[in-house]
What does this fold into?
Amino acid sequence: MRFLGSGVFLLPLALALPVTVPAQSLEGQAVRCKGQLISRIDVDARPPFEIRGSKVQRRLAKRVTELHATTNPEVILRFLALKPGMECTEIRRQESERILRTQPYLAQASVLAIPDNVGGVYLAVTTVDEISLVVGGGASGRTPFVRAFRLGETNFMGEAISVVGNWRHSEDFRDNWSLKITDYQFLGRPYQFAVEGARRELGGEWSAEASHPFLTDLQQLSWRSTAGSRDVFRYFKRPNDADAASIGLKRSYS
It folds into this structure.
């Protein structure tokens, strides 16, 4: 029964194949941007895998891949350097594509200009997500057998938010816990906001950072602000195998 259960779980994964972004749109031939008016922007946000196989196999695989929330098209639109009503320029099209590709939750991205049959163009934006689930851990041959565990999502609910937590067993003092949350599009703008907190064996720490990263040469401004506090202990070896000495260190910054 143990082997059968593993086989049923792995079957859908074997049928979930990586998605690739086509070089051309299925709706028309892509053209260069030469100042044409942009009539609209179509976004096709895709999950990390496409499902193939028989009807039963696709149904099983779909249940597994449904655990992934595809990136919200509104998130993708806000990163573009082009908007409907603007003139389409090649530099802004290329920069829009490059900005999307730098996002850690996107594996692939393309921005193509397609004629709209009224003298202008529309943008066909296609993205493929990275696998967003984060799972990790550590084990030992003696109790406690589980020594560390990591769980999180790098694209929580498809909203460009990373949430990752960690736990690690401590032999002598309290267990270690930490949580880090990063919003890659804070307040609906290309700002980033990250907050992290940790409880160590002794002491703890927290930090926060708000920034407007330099994403493109089209930017005129970039900034970064940080704040945090650390209350940690550093250990020093002593001769003759004596117990290590420790000293407490406290630091706050902003």
Summary: The chain has a mean pLDDT of 86. The first strand starts at residue 16 and ends at 18. The chain has four helices and 14 strands. Helices lie at 2-15, 55-65, 73-79, 90-101.
